[in-house]
C-alpha cells in the first residue's frame, strides 16, 4: 500500500543541483537543473556521469517526492512489476511492433536532505507533451494524427493490461513525444495506475459513491464516475474520449466540468446512443465514424472482459489506409496547424 503520513501530498523542498543520489542497485546519479514539477513531485535532469555537471541535453531525468507521498510509490510499483525492459523487448518482438510507448525506467532509491526523506525514480527523458502541441494546433488534430495516436496507445494499453495493470488517466498531458525521437509517443505518469487483476484474479464490480468521479473529469470512464475500480474497458473508453476531443476540438460535456454528475450523465447518453451520438458531434470535413465504431465496440465490453485489441486497432487502421499513412510512421503535427483558430473550436483548457 502507498505510504501515509502527515506530509502526504506536499510538494517537496527542492534538492540542490549537483547532489549525488545512489539507487538501490548502487548506481550513482548527479542532479542537474529542475525542469518541471507535478502535483506532488519535482523533475530534474540527471546523469550517471557524476564527475561532471549535468548538461542541458541529458537523456535521463529524476522524479523526486517526499517518502510519505503516494503517487510516486504507485508509479514505482508499476515499473518494477510490469515494465521491465526485457519483458517489453520480448513483447515487441512477439507483436512485431517497432516501439512501445512506455518510458524506460532506470532505477530508484531513497535520499535524505535537511532532515527529510525523499523517494526518487530515474527515468528516460521525454519531450513535449501532446496537450501543448494540441493547443498550438488550434485545439484540433487532423484525423490521420488522431488515428495514429489511438492505434499506438492501443499497443501500449494492451501491454499494460496483459501485465495486470490499467493506467486510469490517459490524456494529452500524459502523452509525451520522445526526446531523442519526436516521432515516438509515450504514455507517462502511472501515479493513478491500478493493479486490476492481481495474480490473475480480476477485481469485482462494485460501485462506491464515496470514490466516485476519480481521474481527470473530461475523460474519466463511466465506471470511475460510479466509484468502480478501474478496468480495461475503462482505459479504452478514456482513450475514445481523448480521440473524440482531438478530432473535434471539444467534448459534449466540456461546459459542465464543475458538475461531475452532469458530466457522467452526458457520457452515459453518448455511450447509450452510439454510433449516432458521436456522428452528430462530427468534425466539419472529417468524419468521426472510426471513433464511433471504436466506442461502440468498447461499450459492449463486460467489466472483466478482455478486449479484442486487434479488432479495435483494425477499426483505426482502416481509417488510415485511405490516406496512405502508416500508424507507426512520422507524426506530422505541423500539418495539423493548417487548421487555423478561425476554423477550429475554442481552445480547450490544459488538464
UniProtKB/TrEMBL annotation:
It is an enzyme of class 2 (transferase). The keyword Kinase applies. Belongs to the protein kinase superfamily. CK1 Ser/Thr protein kinase family. VRK subfamily. SUPFAM superfamilies: Protein kinase-like (PK-like) (SSF56112). Transmembrane segments: none annotated. Residues 29-317 form the Protein kinase domain. Its main location: cytoplasm. This is Serine/threonine-protein kinase VRK2. Keywords: ATP-binding, Cytoplasm, Endoplasmic reticulum, Kinase, Membrane, Mitochondrion, Nucleotide-binding, Nucleus, Phosphoprotein, Serine/threonine-protein kinase, Transferase, Transmembrane, Transmembrane helix. One of its GO terms (cellular component) is nuclear envelope. GO terms for molecular function: ATP binding; protein serine/threonine kinase activity. Its EC number is 2.7.11.1. It comes from Aphelocoma coerulescens (Florida scrub-jay). Pfam families: Pkinase. It is a single-pass type IV membrane protein; Single-pass membrane protein. It catalyses: L-threonyl-[protein] + ATP = O-phospho-L-threonyl-[protein] + ADP + H(+); L-seryl-[protein] + ATP = O-phospho-L-seryl-[protein] + ADP + H(+). It is found in: Cytoplasm; Endoplasmic reticulum membrane; Mitochondrion membrane; Nucleus envelope.
Amino acid at each position: 500500500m502507498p505510504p501515509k503520513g502527515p506530509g502526504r501530498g506536499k510538494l517537496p523542498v527542492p534538492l540542490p543541483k549537483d547532489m549525488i543520489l545512489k539507487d538501490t542497485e548502487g548506481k550513482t546519479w548527479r542532479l542537474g537543473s529542475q525542469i518541471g514539477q507535478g502535483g506532488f513531485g519535482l523533475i530534474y535532469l540527471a546523469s550517471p556521469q557524476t564527475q561532471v555537471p549535468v548538461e542541458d541535453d541529458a537523456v535521463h531525468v529524476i522524479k523526486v517526492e517526499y517518502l510519505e507521498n503516494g503517487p510516486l510509490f504507485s508509479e514505482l510499483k508499476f515499473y518494477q512489476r510490469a515494465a521491465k525492459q526485457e519483458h517489453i523487448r520480448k513483447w515487441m518482438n512477439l507483436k512485431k511492433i517497432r516501439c512501445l510507448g512506455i518510458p524506460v525506467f532506470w532505477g530508484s532509491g531513497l535520499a535524505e536532505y535537511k532532515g527529510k526523506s525523499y523517494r526518487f525514480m530515474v527515468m528516460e527523458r521525454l519531450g513535449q507533451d501532446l496537450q501543448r502541441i494540441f493547443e498550438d494546433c488550434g485545439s484540433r488534430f487532423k484525423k490521420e494524427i488522431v488515428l495514429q495516436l489511438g492505434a499506438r496507445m492501443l499497443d501500449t494499453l494492451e501491454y499494460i493490461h496483459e501485465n495486470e495493470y490499467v493506467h486510469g488517466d490517459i490524456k494529452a498531458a500524459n502523452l509525451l513525444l520522445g526526446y531523442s525521437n519526436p516521432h515516438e509517443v509515450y504514455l507517462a505518469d502511472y501515479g493513478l495506475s491500478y493493479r486490476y487483476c492481481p495474480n490473475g484474479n480480476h477485481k469485482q464490480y462494485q460501485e462506491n459513491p464515496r470514490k466516485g468521479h476519480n481521474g481527470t473529469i473530461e475523460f474519466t470512464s463511466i465506471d470511475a464516475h460510479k466509484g468502480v475500480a478501474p478496468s480495461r474497458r475503462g482505459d479504452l473508453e478514456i482513450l475514445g474520449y481523448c480521440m473524440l476531443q482531438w478530432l473535434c476540438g471539444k467534448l459534449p460535456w466540456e461546459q459542465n466540468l464543475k458538475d461531475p454528475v452532469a458530466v457522467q450523465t452526458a457520457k452515459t447518453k453518448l455511450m447509450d446512443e452510439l454510433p449516432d451520438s458521436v456522428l452528430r458531434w462530427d468534425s466539419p470535413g472529417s468524419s468521426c465514424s472510426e471513433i464511433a465504431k471504436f466506442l461502440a465496440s468498447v461499450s459492449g465490453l463486460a467489466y472483466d472482459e478482455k478486449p479484442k485489441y486487434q479488432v479495435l486497432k483494425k477499426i483505426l487502421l482502416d481509417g488510415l489506409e485511405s490516406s496512405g499513412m502508416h500508424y507507426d510512421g512520422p507524426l506530422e503535427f505541423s500539418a495539423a496547424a493548417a487548421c487555423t483558430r478561425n476554423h477550429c473550436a475554442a481552445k480547450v483548457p490544459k488538464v
